[in-house]
Amino acid sequence: VIKLLLRFKFKVVVRKMLVNGARLLENFNILAGIGSTKNGGITRLALTNEDKEARNQVVKWMQEIDLKVRIDDFGNIFGRKEGRIPNAPPIVIGSHIDSVKNGGRFDGVIGVLAGIEILQTITEKNIGHDYSLEVAVFTNEEGARFQRPMLGSAAMAGAISQEQVYNMQDDSGKFFIDELKRIGYLGNKESRLKEVKLFAEVHIEQGTILEENNKRIGIVQGISGLSWLKASFFGQSDHAASTPMIQRKDALVSAANVINNLTQWAKEKMDNSLITFGKMNVRPNIANVIPNEVSISIDIRDFDNDRLLSSTKYVKEQLYRIAEENNVVVKIEESVFQEPAIFNKNLIDKLEVLCISNQVPYHKMLSGAGHDAMYMNRLGNTIMLFIPSVEGKSHCEEEHSDWDDILLSIDTLYRLIEKELN
Ligand SMILES: [Zn+2]
User: Fold this and answer.
1) DSSP code, position 173
2) pLDDT in tens, 132-172
3) Orientation angle between helical segments 403-420 and 345-357, nearest 10 degrees
4) How far is CA 312 from CA 321, 330, 331, 375, in A?
5) What Å distances lie between residue 82 and 88, 90, 202, 422, CA to CA?
6) For residue range 338-378, what is the model confidence (pLDDT) as tens digits?
């Protein structure tokens, strides 16, 4: 109760909204009804019948406000309102409508609804614009069905080839391309976005930073990059009772030294680099046998690409050094490397000014999780706004954000876009 009261107390920012809150809520409820679960969540995996139904609904809304709809070769959907300068790069607002299994109603959906609502408001107010305006819906952002997150936006930005995407299979062996055709959303390559003047994504925070700081809008400065390694140590299995300490080739002791050493190193650096060892396999995994084979996962995150590269290099050097000290052999696999995305400074400043002048409590922050905006950042100036998540819960049925916070973010984005139209 106290928590609720506190939240209420800090939310008495009353102002006239320029977008239509009632309409937004109505649209939100329609999407929340497609693929809904018993406990108020959503299961709407990419390219399923539920995804198709939600896509059809969004396309219907696009057509109702006379947007020209086109679909690209990855099933990404774009609704366009033509500007006065015919071939200039467009202003694009979007996100995704696919979900994880038993996910929440807010993740992704809010970013798409924001686009529809902002374009509808501009249409109703009859505001002229030099730049064309588009709403975007990206395919398979969650990576829950086809196991590559941000698939549609990454592919469009050239991070994955069309062949790779088409050949992806879900758990039951169905191919991406077949499912895309089946739901009627295979478009053409020409429909992809090549360049944007501005891309904006409104998204729930999926963390507790805004809630803890009593802020209502997160201005996202960037998304961290990541580097994944798998290190396998090969030693020798011997009896625990009869092998002297000095003669051992213990794979687990090597792994433990690595974990301890690198954790200490990351802590002492104090530069916000993160390192996590989340997974370990031990063989033979018997209490009285010296382990001969141990593998660990290494997850390194950083907002600075040079530092991410140099940390990865340092970690590899330490793996070899520690293995040698312990008389074991180490094999390193580099499985994923994703560059960080740093969003547009100028747009961040403009959003900050807007929040100050409208007395909106905001927080400038970085995102640990990936979003479509990460890849859109490669096509032009990009910005993200975060909405507080109640107790940070996301990717679950309890996922929730307060409606007045959602409205405030979309309204703030509208005010930004209004200034960028010409
Ligand atoms: Zn999302």
Assistant:
1) -
2) 999 999 999 999 999 888 999 999 999 999 999 999 999 99
3) 120
4) 14, 16, 15, 22
5) 10, 9, 22, 13
6) 889 999 999 999 999 999 999 999 999 999 889 999 999 99
pTM to 2 decimals?
Answer: 0.84
Calculate how far, in angstroms, residue 125's C-alpha sits from the geometric centre of ligand 1. Answer: 30
Phi first, then psi: what are they for 96, rounded to 5°? -135, 160
For 149, 158, 218, 259, the CA distances from 340, given in Å and listed in that order, are 15, 16, 18, 24
Judge whether 353 and 236 are in contact, CB under 8 Å: no
Inter-residue contact 304 to 221 (CB < 8 Å): no
Note whether 95 and 141 are within 8 A (CB). Answer: yes
- Residue 258 alpha carbon to ligand 1 centre in Å: 34
Q: What is the per-residue pLDDT across 80-124, written as a single tens digit (0 to 9) for each?
A: 999 999 899 999 999 999 999 999 999 999 999 999 999 999 999
> Under DSSP, is residue 203 helix (H, G, I), strand (E, B) or coil?
strand
Which residues surround the ion ligand 1 when the cut-off is CB under 5 Å?
107-108
Query: What's the confidence (pLDDT) of residue 9?
Result: 47
Say how many Å lie between the CA of residue 387 and the centre of ligand 1: 12
